[in-house]
């Protein structure tokens, strides 16, 4: 596939009053009986703000009421939102969403939800959804762990995708990494039996961490070589595709000599 831009996966905006996309360990924050946080959760994003262009704002105003929502504590009725019943896949940190759109077009039988906090990135995806009339994408703006904790029911997801999460390379920042044991356990709980978790990273140290955490999650089994499985034995029977668009960010990583590591797990049946 053509190269696309997902650079916003690494630098995103915080939403006033809420933690932002892909928060790290669940135990790092808890709620009062009213639902407000008693203290901030350690998050896995770097704050960045940006204004929408007039064209982006116009598309946002037209499309967001139908295809977008702010993250909340209300359980999500995906069938009603999409207007159909179909396997549900979420992408955590969809950035500017070009890869999201490519996957949605390649998998029209799936309902896809992109989760992101950086509004200008989301606005680029909203523009493409409107321009190309892509009907199987919905968007959530806010903290992905809040989505998993409060909006998604157990065993309701066919797939979860996490492409190039921020590696937080300094040792003192490792607690901010999204893919910690508690988050992997939550994702595994939300996957239906046979559902797929697909992760990609270009950071060798983070890859080692992800491999260790994934191997320790008892509900997940490896489906590709990096997870102890064999891709050729599993990709035809998997409920979502193993292929993904090659991004501009990934192209830069290749040119810099960074290896891309793909992790694909399935939930035990």
Question: How is this structure best described in words?
Answer:
By secondary structure, the protein is of the alpha/beta class. It contains 9 helices and 8 strands. It has an 8-stranded mixed β-sheet with strand order 1-4-3-2-5-6-8-7, with helices on both faces. α1 packs across α4. The longest helix has 14 residues. The relative contact order is 0.18. The N terminus is likely disordered.
Which residue ranges are poorly predicted, with pLDDT under 50 across at least 5 consecutive positions? 1-40
Q: What is the assembly state of the chains in this entry?
A: single chain
Indicate the radius of gyration in whole angstroms: 17 Å
- β-strand percent reads 15-25%
Q: What is the share of helical residues?
A: 25-40%
Question: Separation of termini?
Answer: 32 Å
Structural class: alpha/beta
How many H/I helical runs?
9
The major beta sheet can be summarized as: 8 strands, mixed
Q: How many strand units? A: 8
Order of helices and strands: HEHEHEHEHEHEHEHHE
User: How does the overall form come out from the CA principal axes?
Assistant: globular
Strand order of the largest sheet: 1-4-3-2-5-6-8-7
What does the average pLDDT come to? 84
Fold topology:
Layout lengths: L53 H14 E3 L7 H5 L5 E5 L5 H9 L4 E6 L2 H14 L4 E5 L2 H8 L5 E7 L17 H10 E11 L2 H13 L3 E3 L8 H4 L13 H8 L5 E7 L2
Parallel strand pairs: 1-4, 2-3, 2-5, 3-4, 5-6
Antiparallel strand pairs: 6-8, 7-8
Helix pairs in contact: 1-4
